[in-house]
Write a structure and sequence with these properties.
The chain is an alpha+beta fold. It has two domains: 9-155, no CATH class; 165-434, Anthranilate synthase, CATH 3.60.120. 32% of the residues lie in helices and 31% in strands. The protein is built from ten helices and 25 strands. It has helices at 17-30, 59-70, 136-155, 173-188, 211-221, 264-276, 278-295, 337-344, 355-365, 416-434; strands at residues 9-14, 32-36, 39-44, 48-52, 73-74, 98-102, 111-115, 118-123, 129-134, 165-169, 194-205, 226-230, 233-237, 240-245, 248-252, 254-259, 299-303, 309-312, 316-320, 323-327, 352-353, 376-381, 386-390, 394-398, 401-410. The strands form four sheets. Strands 1, 2, 3, 5, 8, 9, 10, 11, 12, 13, 21, 24 and 25 form a 13-stranded mixed beta sheet that branches. The protein has a seven-stranded antiparallel beta sheet with strand order 6-22-23-14-15-20-17, with helices on one face. It has a three-stranded antiparallel beta sheet with strand order 16-19-18. The longest helix is centred in the first third of the chain and has 20 residues, at 136-155. It is globular and about 65 Å long.
């Protein structure tokens, strides 16, 4: 064990609904947020950072990071920090330290997991709690100071929001069309089966973009998605890469897209056409098969539906498949959610097929630093459980500018103009939250 977290301890304290609401406001303004229907994870400060040497491509580093997280011990005497266990507390199910991250798309890039000093965990079916990490003195200080922290945030006058905006595409539309045509030529030559090509658009505002505004609008506009904000990387993603709870795992890949008009009749016809499309179903199945194959060595059983279903979002519909399974034990334990992400990322949904060839081609053709776009964003806890999503429908926000990204899967019968239009639809997911004329 590296010892990166061995001198830290933690304490857990339940909080009431009022404190949860106030901490959520605080996190929306300046904390880390991963929120979906049924679960809210909020983080403040950094108790420690667990480095991922070699990124997701180094399984030993992923395993070590979760072991280090598990080395954070509960305080020796809960009464010394003002925590009184409630009747019926179960040490096997109560919250434990959590590490959050938004990792780069490049699976070999160095990364790190951030363990917040204060983490709020609020599942829909249990009482919300805070997990505080630090030295015993720091744990005591943080627990006693939560009301003051919230009060101080409420006393601050918020800066005025921006009210002037300018959009700038990183490259002309024709450039993207030419790149799609070049990919189609490679596919016709047999070099590739599919490539996911991304575009970048930047929003420039006259004043700093406010995280709370962006997150609030993303949650309101895309309630069925998972909203996130991790150190300047914000979005509302519809795609669950991997969730682990004990031995149970779930992955819900999306591939295949149709525009939604808002007219119920038109939308039903578009969705029926999407379900019937040989092209879209074949593209979707490639992603499902890749995930199933990657998980096969670590599961006792895997349940994969025969066909996809429609997943409706605000302005698009996708084909989606819910893959579920039960892990097999390895050396007496299950692989952590983070280790499983290392097996899966990148999927054909964000890279292409064959994946290795697609990544090589992207490095030469795309000429775009994806940074954390389409990388895994989520959390893992000291037990190895966690949830990781694809960082899509997202932007990197720095002061008064936001870099937005959108990608499309190009296959043999793709049409360049249609692929450009699809990127514009996907960009709207964040644009609608960022640009408020």
């Amino acid at each position: 064990m590296s010892g990166r977290a061995t001198r830290l301890c933690y304490a857990v304290r339940p909080i009431d609904a009022g404190m949860l609401a106030r901490l959520r406001v605080h996190a929306y303004e300046s904390g880390r947020v991963i929120e979906r229907d049924g679960l809210m994870v909020l983080g403040f400060g950094t108790a420690t950072a667990l480095g991922l040497s070699g990124g997701l491509a180094n399984p030993a580093s992923l395993r070590l990071a979760v072991l280090d997280l598990g080395a954070i011990s509960p305080v020796a005497d809960s009464r010394s920090v003002g925590v009184t266990p409630e009747p019926g507390d179960n040490r096997d199910t109560e919250p434990v330290p959590i590490a959050l991250a938004a990792l780069r798309f490049d699976r070999c890039a160095e990364g790190e997991l951030l363990v917040p000093e204060v983490t709020v965990i609020a599942p829909a079916d249990h009482k919300p709690s805070v997990v505080v990490v630090g030295s015993p003195d720091r744990v005591r200080e943080l627990l006693s100071g939560l009301p003051e922290i919230v009060a101080a945030r409420r006393a601050r006058e918020p800066a005025s929001p921006p009210d002037e905006f300018r959009l700038a595409s990183a490259r002309p539309h024709q450039d993207f069309l030419d790149r799609v045509s070049a990919v189609l030529a490679e596919i016709a030559a047999g070099s590739l089966d599919k490539l996911v090509l991304a575009r970048e658009v930047t929003v420039h505002a006259n004043r700093p973009l406010r995280q709370a505004d962006l997150l609030g609008r993303l949650r309101a506009l895309h309630p069925s998605c998972t909203a996130f904000a991790v150190d300047g990387f914000l979005g509302a993603t519809p795609e669950l890469l991997l969730a682990r709870c004990g031995a149970r795992i779930t992955s819900v890949p999306l591939a295949g897209t149709a525009a939604r008009s808002g007219d119920p009749g038109s939308d039903r016809r578009a969705e029926a056409a999407l379900l019937a499309s040989v092209k879209e179903r074949a593209e979707h199945r490639v992603v499902v098969d890749a995930i199933s194959s990657a998980l096969a060595p670590v599961v006792e059983q895997l349940e994969v539906p025969d066909g996809p279903v429609i997943r409706e979002l605000r302005n698009v519909s996708h084909l989606g498949t819910s893959i579920t399974g039960t892990l097999a034990k390895r050396d007496g334990s299950y692989p952590s959610a983070l280790e499983l992400v290392g097996l899966l990322h990148p999927t054909p949904a964000v890279a292409g097929t064959p994946v290795d060839l697609a990544l090589d081609y992207l490095a030469k053709l795309e000429e775009l630093d994806r940074d954390r776009y389409a990388g895994p964003v989520g959390w893992v806890d000291a037990r190895g459980d966690g949830e990781w999503y694809l960082g899509i429908r997202s932007a990197i926000v720095e002061g008064s500018s936001a870099r937005l990204f959108a990608g499309v899967g190009i296959v043999a019968d793709s049409e360049p103009a249609a692929e450009l239009a699809e990127t514009q639809l996907k960009l709207q997911a964040f644009l609608a939250a960022a640009v408020r004329p």
